[in-house]
Amino acid sequence: MRLTTEHWNAIHEHLKAEVGDSCFESWLLPLKLADEQPEGNTTVAVKVPTRFMRDWVIRHYTDVLRKAIVDVTGLDMTVDYIVTPPAAASAQAATPAAKAAAKAETAPKVTTKKAEKAPVSSPVLEGGNILDPRYTFDNFVTGKSNEFAYHAAKRIAESDDIAYNPFFLHGGVGLGKTHLMHAIAWQIHAQTPKRRVMYTSSEKFVYQFVRALKDKKTIDFKDAFRSVDVLMIDDIQFIAGKDASQEEFFNTLNALFDQRKQVIVTADKSPLELDGFEDRLRSRLGWGLTTEVHRPDLETRVAILESKAQNMKIDLPRDVALFLADKIASNVRELEGALNRLVAHTTLVHQPITLATTQELLKDLFRVYNRAVTIDEIQMKVAEFYRIKLHEMHSSRRSRDVARPRQIAMYLAKTLTSKSYPEIGKAFGGRDHTTVMHAVKHIEGLRDSDPSLKEDVKILENMLTTNA
Ligand code: ADP
Ligand code: MG
Q: Which numbered atom of ligand 1 lies nearest the CA of 179?
């Protein structure tokens, strides 16, 4: 059975009832049924406007969505998310600015089309994540910071002698780990299409495992993961603290190593530094080849901008590239974001890109990155994130499910605004300033000891400060 628009509308209704209007509108309403649906009745292809939104939905609404699908269709289906900016998805009513921005946020139209077809002709096995067609070795710009990782990845992709197992790639956010991993998969597929490649995020691995346990289908799960030639798990750090999944992952690794199958893993830290991992898993992950991607130097950042501009067929003057690369040093993703906004703006006003317009626009850009956040916004977002009622931010209830979010909101109010402790206390139902101080200290402590809380705080900070 293929899902129809009627099914999808009904699923939307269920979702709305489940999560409430505001969460529904922010996160679930934008999900659209893809035009092309995969064969069979195990997977439904869904379009989502941005990658951020996809990650958010996977993280927070996987179960709700699955249940709504079961409720409506009687089928337990996996959702395949296809990132498609709204302008390309359909002629949705949008302001010209929003359209231009959405378009510039991702690849040119041609590539988007290709991405839409991915569930049908994907070179990776079903059940895994979809590959981004732009993430190839050809599109990867090298410099001192990533040369070694690039060559190692190429070596792994080009030879099937399994000399390094696992291949462990680590580094900070937005430095090209996922890009390199996809590039390996594309290359293997181009070279030896019959090699069975499974590419998945560790979150999806955990989710599928938990689901297999619930459904008593662990044998199928084990078979699926052990019968591949190449297993790629992206962002393994999210498996931290999940003991049963770690155990299963460890067993899968050993089974694959025994069969001389290639395992490739990325993470934000080196194997030995991974928090919340069992020692034997950490050490096993470090047995193969471990490489790090570092932050690119200025020269490489300029080269990356120029390469992206060329791909977009945009004329980017050298002085502008230098200026942008100099101002945005944090990571490649932000650099890309800045370039996209610049392109969106200049296309919209039909002006060529010049240093003067860039400098002018960059003022706005930085305002976007560091925009002023209010306590109200913090309370709203945190309540939404933890799915509690907004008034709990002001209430005196102390049960942990509301007290913890409230403390996190206080912490964010202290770190993201310039308000004083007493002012914050007042905004949280007239609490004493010492309560706020205590909350801030407490969350600071937890941030170091609880990886999942740390991750939550990071996501909230990102949402609040970048207009995402
Ligand atoms: P990570 O997985 O390390 O967080 P990604 O691989 O998602 O980072 O990279 C973020 C963005 O930056 C992607 O769009 C990617 O194509 C781009 N990028 C990162 N490094 C490079 C590079 N060296 N050359 C070209 N693009 C890059
Ligand atoms: Mg990544």
A: 6
The DSSP code sequence of 258-277 is: HTT-EEEEEESS-GGG-TT-
Name the residue among 175, 204, 336 with its Cα closest to residue 268. 175
Could you read off the pLDDT of 375-401 as tens digits, one per residue?
999 999 999 889 899 999 999 999 999
The CATH-assigned architecture of domain 298-367 is Orthogonal Bundle (1.10)
pLDDT band, very low/low/confident/very high, at 131 (cuts 50, 70, 90): confident
Q: Does the pLDDT value for residue 147 go beyond 70?
A: yes
Q: Is 174 in the pocket of ligand 1 (CB under 6 A)?
A: yes
Question: Over the stretch 20-73, which tens digit does the pLDDT of each residue have?
Answer: 776 787 788 889 998 888 777 778 889 988 777 888 888 788 888 888 887 777
Q: What is the CATH number of domain 375-466?
A: 1.10.1750.10
Using the atom order of ligand 1, give the atom closest to the CA of residue 300: 23
CA atoms of 99 and 81, how far apart (whole Å): 21
Of 97, 112, 86, the closest CA to residue 31 belongs to: 86
Ligand nearest to the CA of 177: 1
Which ligand lies nearest to the CA atom of residue 172 in the structure?
Answer: 1
The answer to whether the pTM exceeds 0.85 is: no
| Residues facing residue 234 across a β-bridge | 201
Residue-range domain boundaries for the chain: 5-88, 121-292, 298-367, 375-466
Of 266, 212, 258, 264, the C-alpha closest to 234 is 266
